[in-house]
Amino acid sequence: MVEEILSLGFDSLELSHGIRSSQLEGVRQARERHEFQVSSIHNFLPMPIEVLTDSPDCYEFTSHRSKDRDRALRLTLSTIEWAEKLGAPFVVVHTGRIRSLKLTARLRKMVEEGKMHTREFIKSKLAAVQAREKVEELHTSRILEVLTEAVDYAGKHGVKLGIENREYCEAVPLERNFPNFLQRLNPDHSGYWHDFGHAQIKHNLGLIDHVQHLEKMAPRLIGCHIHDTRPPFRDHCPPFTGETPFDQLVPLLPKNCATVLEMSPRTEASDILKSVEEWNKRFK
After folding, report:
1. Residue 79 phi/psi, 5° resolution?
2. What pTM was estimated for this model as a whole?
3. Residue among 135, 238, 154, 138 nearest 196 (CA)
4. Which residue, among 204, 283, 175, has the nearest Cα to 239 in the 3D structure?
5. What is the C-alpha to C-alpha distance for residues 115 and 134, in angstroms, rounded to an integer?
């Protein structure tokens, strides 16, 4: 896995969720044989032994079960320890969803049916936002109770946590509440992690303006996942093969921002290299 990535000309990589404990020793051995940087690690790493398929949201900080929130914390602390061992400066974190709400599927279906500019869709979108607002603070409190400890732990291990925006309407925090949410965490050991695909999906649902959101979050931005979105909701496509306005967005990134290509496993190597070549022409 590592050698395939390096063979494409990359000298750094993110270790994502879905990697089992048995594979981590191989990663460590690969680092001894080859010179490469682990740019970031995605929570949870390694994959929980009791989970049989890759599932980064198997335990969420928003869960109403205290045992699940505690398990999420313990797995996050372990990921932070691995980040320190592998020299990764960042751990990317999903904070969770309000599972009791079923909002995303209905809105997506209406957009796919061409109803985005109808009164029916606008009413449904407003109802979804109002339903979230009624219960968001409860779930935010649950997240911060766990995440504050994780951020402090990350600081002790020389790591920063990157709080990633998600594509779901049920995700916490809501984009407009992200600045306030991050203000409640230690800025020395935490920041915002921007996922281009997730933000573009929210843009296509009429929930955010992608450019305005990134502009607002830039002061706390520490890293990003780069992939394109084909209308309306197919993400993890190679850059410049979809509709994401990279020419407007990339200039908003801080100079020291970590940039990670996050492609679908089905992406051909030739398409990755083509996108990298075009990226370097435009932005290097």
Report:
1. -60, -40
2. 0.96
3. 238
4. 283
5. 26
* Sequence-separated (6 or more) residues with CB below 8 Å from residue 252: 211, 214, 215, 218
What confidence category does residue 94 fall into, taking pLDDT thresholds of 50, 70 and 90? very high
Find the DSSP H helices in the chain: 2-7, 21-33, 66-86, 104-112, 119-156, 178-183, 196-204, 210-217, 246-249, 269-283
Q: Tell me, what's the pLDDT at 35?
A: 84
- Block residue for tokens 């044989």: 33
User: C-alpha angle with apex 192: 220 to 245, nearest 5 degrees?
Assistant: 95
Whats the size of the chain, residue-wise? 284
Task: Burial-class residue 36 by CB neighbours within 10 Å (0-12, 13-18, 19+).
Answer: middle
Contact call for residues 49 and 75 (beta carbons, < 8 A): no
- Whose tokens are 């290299």? That residue is 273
Domains of the chain: 2-283 (3.20.20.150)
State yes or no: pLDDT of 66 exceeds 90. yes
Q: How far apart are CA 121 and CA 248, in angstroms?
A: 28
Residue with tokens 């929570």: 43
Encoded amino acid at 109, one letter: K
Measured distance CA(223)–CA(36) in Å, rounded:
18
Alpha carbons 262 and 56: distance in angstroms, whole number? 15
Which pLDDT does position 79 carry in this prediction? 97
